[in-house]
Design a protein that fits this description.
The chain has a single domain (about 5-215), classed as Alpha-Beta Complex (Spore Coat Polysaccharide Biosynthesis Protein SpsA, Chain A). Strands 1, 2, 3, 4, 5, 6, 9, 10 and 11 form a 9-stranded mixed beta sheet that branches. It starts with 5 loop residues before the first strand and ends with a helix. It is about 40% helix and about 25% strand. α7 (about 215-235) packs across α9. By secondary structure, the protein is α/β, with parallel strands linked by helices. The chain is globular and about 60 Å long.
Length: about 290
């Protein structure tokens, strides 16, 4: 296999201990040539000092220092804009890859239709999507020893073809600060005629110690449900699917009063952000969802 230059992108905030523990392991697992772009989001610990010292010792480290926390989505988009690699490897700062993790994933890109390959975190497999009760849902489709198409590629442990990433415009910042941005990107890729794969041989360990795990659970749950609504408003064109959503929203509001807060938050967020030009659809919603009903 030819020598491929990859760009690893890691957004981080107040995670000095994670960086010190995980970055050496990441560097040892990477092929050469490679670059590691670390978006340092205005941390108040000593992350910046550590990264400055490490970048002097290892030329692969490219820290970008911001005065404030951009959040995960904006951090990834910034990293992708400055990346030089043909492929973008997105890693959370609490994800540690095994040696040789990239080679099985990169083989898939011999097929020009492949946009992204999701790594094997162990506890998850390929991702499926389905429509029910007026809402799009996602979950684990299954595991196995063979590669499988996937509804999306994880924003914290996957590799993306940079040229298609830019054609799609990267993560949509309407989902700020996190959640559903990778599902949205994957769905837009499927609509555009590209494909996504989960590769079981590309092993990584996700230790679930990221910034999100330290946030208030009620806030995180609100963002998840808010972004589920935004996803449908942005991406679903099927007439009958869209017709079923008002009833689904009404049922959720009537059975759980807090859902009105979710709905209003979704409306506010959706109206605040400019609407992206839709991807020229090569597949319908039903065609995409049918791929994962196996």
């Amino acid at each position: 296999m030819r020598n491929i230059f990859v760009s690893v992108i890691i957004p981080t905030w107040n995670a000095e201990k994670l960086l010190k523990r995980n970055l050496p392991l990441i560097l040892s697992a990477l092929p050469k040539p490679a670059e590691v772009i670390i978006i340092e989001n205005g941390s108040t610990d000593h992350s910046a000092d550590y990264l400055k010292a490490l970048s002097v010792k290892d030329s692969r480290i490219r820290p970008i220092f911001k005065s404030r926390n951009l959040g995960f989505i904006k951090g990834c988009n910034l990293g992708a804009r400055v990346a030089k690699g043909e492929f973008l490897v997105l890693l959370n700062n609490d994800v540690v890859p095994q040696k040789g993790f990239l080679e099985p994933a990169l083989r898939h890109f011999k097929n020009p239709e492949i946009f992204a390959v999701s790594f094997n975190e162990g506890q998850f497999g390929w991702a499926k999507l389905w429509w029910r009760g007026g809402f799009i849902h996602h979950g684990v489709g299954g595991k196995g020893k063979k590669a499988h198409i996937s509804g999306w590629a994880s924003g914290g442990s996957a590799v993306f073809r940079r040229s298609i990433w830019h054609r799609l415009g990267g993560f949509d910042e309407v989902y700020q600060p996190f959640y559903w941005e990778d599902v949205d990107l994957g769905y837009r890729a499927w609509k555009g005629g590209w494909k996504i794969v989960w590769e079981p041989k590309s092993l990584v360990e996700h230790r679930h110690e990221s910034t999100i795990s330290r946030l208030d659970k009620n806030f995180v749950d609100l963002v998840k449900e808010r972004n589920q609504l935004i996803f449908a408003w942005k991406n679903i064109n099927d007439f009958w699917f869209n017709l079923s959503q008002p009833l689904g929203i009404s049922l959720r509001i009537s059975t759980g009063p807090n859902y009105l807060k979710v709905f209003l938050a979704a409306v506010s967020q959706y109206c605040r952000f400019p609407k992206r030009k839709p991807v020229l659809s090569a597949r319908t919603d039903r065609e995409i969802l049918k791929l994962f009903q196996k």
